[in-house]
Amino acid sequence: MDKQFYIKRIYEECAEDDGYRVLVDRLWPRGVSKKEAWLDEWLKEIAPSTELRKWFDHDPDKFDEFSDRYKSELTQKEEVVEHLLKIAEEQKITLLYAAKDEGHNHAQVLKEFLENK
Length: 117
Known about the structure:
This protein has helices at 34-37, 50-56, 63-74, 78-90, 106-115; strands at residues 5-9, 20-23, 41-42, 93-97.
């Protein structure tokens, strides 16, 4: 089976075809109960470092540099990356994030990083 990664805002409704649902944010999203989230796993460790997250501050102008820096961080997180790749061999994975900007967020970068592994 080809590895299948999808991304979705945690505020969107859970769907049966989401597969394995993983929250990839370091902080728990506001206004979402643990029950509503329907998570299979919360992988805080794979999120960008606090320093990088604060530096980026959801500024689209910084997105390219943020992407490069985050990918660099991900190369240091082999264990969690391998963990997701292993799950993806068996089933679809939906990476969940809370950011409002659907085009400029770390889940986009993570998805691309995982697909290129």
